[in-house]
Amino acid sequence: MKYSFFFLLFMLLHGLGNAQVLCGADRMEAYDSLLKGKRVSLVINQTSVVGCSSLLDTLYSRSMDIVQVFTPEHGFRGNADAGETVNDERDVRTNIPIISLYGKNKKPLPAQLAQTDLIVFDIQDVGARFYTYISTLYYVMQACAENSKKLIILDRPNPCDYVDGPVLEKKYQSFVGMLPIPILHGCTVGELAQMINGEGWLGDGLKCDMVVIPVKGWKHGQPYSLPIKPSPNLPNDQAIAFYASLCPFEGTSVSVGRGTLFPFQMIGSPDLTSYDFQFVPRSLEGFDKNPLHKDKCCYGIDLRNVEVPEGFTLKYVLQFYADYAASSRNPEKEFFTRPEWFDLLMGTDQVRLGIIAGKTEKQICNEWEPTLQEYKSIREKYLLYEE
User: Fold this and answer.
1) How far apart are CA 370 and CA 215, in angstroms?
2) Beta-carbon contacts of residue 25 (< 8 Å; ≥ 6 apart)
């Protein structure tokens, strides 16, 4: 894979901040022998790099037998819109088939796994339950367990490493929430995989035979700046930090800045003209082609230079609902334009109902605190890194 001068410079500058951190993929001496002589399938995207090289290119150059690549939401190159169907293709350099796990099928099929000995999973997560890469991890683990295939997880740090928010209730399970974990789960992908196995969440008594190649030089709570944006609308550290708290707006009439160069760093609506800050969502290649309120002026808040939340906050959702309540005859309907989606993102309907009832943030948070404490006890059993 060829990289431009500016991309290499970007990687270098980010790398300086993460100089002491070696991701699982960087530690080739720890997994090289596990792959030699095996038919290998990869679950990867644009974040799956060794230094400045794609993991696919790196392993291919070392004569590993890569039989296929599975790729999650946003595709192999990470440029498909949120929710956009990702089609199968072939890598232009190696001619290796790339199979979408975000189209007709979200789980590797037995016929696909029949031609492989093991699967390598290497995708950068951002620490939020509704970020669908961990849903893909769940299905890959389940497929491996059902088809007696080994899974190797190349771990990466969690850039938003908090434990906070409501724990998902089973009836709200979906692809934006597969696991009974809080919105901010405080785990790496490797730790989550151990939890899935250890808590029996694969169902039917299934256990995935897996090996986690851990990160070196990182511990929980240590800042980590992502060298490559993990998806089109998380272009920088500020967006990643605000993502968990702003994503629930996707079930409302409020834009989170999709269709601008600063998604998840501004929020607004055409209905709230009392705000001075303005932005206009456009169709932007590489960000969002059909954003909410496309070509309409939105009024709201600029978060680009605002101190990021330490954990999950309902502050902004509550503030904008109050704004709608002050100016609308039916704020519940006009604000919660997709209430079912809001509940799926939250993993419960208690938050939405609490907001409508006029509860404070503290009152709403107190309702999920018991299950959050239960999760924290579970999490402790599967940690790979010092806190």
Assistant:
1) 31
2) 48, 49, 50, 55, 122, 154, 156, 213
| Beta strand spans in 1-138 (E) | 39-44, 49-50, 53-54, 65-71, 89-90, 97-100, 118-122
The pLDDT tens digits of the residues spanning 160-192 come to 999 999 999 999 999 999 999 999 999 999 999
- The tokens for 39 are 């038919």
Please say if the pLDDT value at position 288 is more than 90.
no
Tokens of 79: 């440029």
Please state, in angstroms and rounded to a whole number, the distance separating the CA atoms of residues 24 and 10. 21
Amino acid in the structure at residue 218: W
Identify which of 368, 336, 371 has the alpha carbon closest to the alpha carbon of residue 352. 336
Q: What is the dihedral of CA 242, 182, 325, 363, to 10 degrees?
A: -120
Q: Are 43 and 120 in contact (CB under 8 A)?
A: yes
Q: Report the C-alpha gap between 351 and 13 in whole angstroms.
A: 40
φ/ψ of 221, rounded to 5, equals 90, -10
